[in-house]
Design goal:
By secondary structure, this protein is mainly α. The chain has 7 helices and no strands.
């Protein structure tokens, strides 16, 4: 197995990180490093908490893990530090704020208690029964309507055959 120097690894990390965000395939082709090696490096950097997006997509196309990592890294930064951080990575402070808000909103959903969940399930079952009953009623009415239309058509044909003068 070939060993790579820290300088090569640092260059690869720089290329993968924002703002360059080069793809693994592109870096592999340019540097001659096997793709799986690059993927394992990226995985280890992510586990260390670094922002290494999975593709060349613009920041809005990043995965939730990368966005959340940015939110964590910028949590304690003031406005000036945040601006410098964003410039380094090709981001906008507004994006980071949107991602922060989305992270906060994701945890605001109330957790249902057991009784509330049972009540919700019971209402769902009642709704399903009502839907089934309404569908059956609709089918019955559609059949009755089709039968009435057939009788009306038959009556018109008989009337046309016998003529309008025959009252008996």
């Amino acid at each position: 197995m070939r060993r790579y120097s820290e300088a090569v690894r640092a260059d690869v990390r720089r290329r993968m990180s924002p703002p360059q965000r080069q793809s693994v395939a592109r870096i592999s082709k340019e540097l001659g490093i096997h793709v799986m090696t690059l993927y394992s490096w990226r995985k280890s950097w992510r586990l260390q908490g670094e922002v290494v997006p999975a593709s060349e997509k613009d920041p809005e196309g990043w995965g939730s893990t990368d966005k959340f990592t940015v939110v964590l890294e910028t949590a304690g930064l003031n406005g000036t530090e945040l601006g410098a951080y964003c410039r380094e990575r090709g981001l906008y402070p507004e994006q980071v704020e949107r991602w922060r808000q989305a992270s906060q909103d994701a945890n605001e959903k109330p957790v249902l208690t057991l009784t509330e969940q049972k009540d919700l399930d019971r209402r769902h079952q009642q709704d399903q029964r009502e839907i089934k009953q309404l569908k059956q009623e609709l089918r019955r009415k559609e059949k009755a309507l089709a039968e009435a239309a057939a009788l009306l058509l038959a009556a018109k044909k008989i009337q046309a055959f016998w003529g309008e003068d025959a009252d008996d």
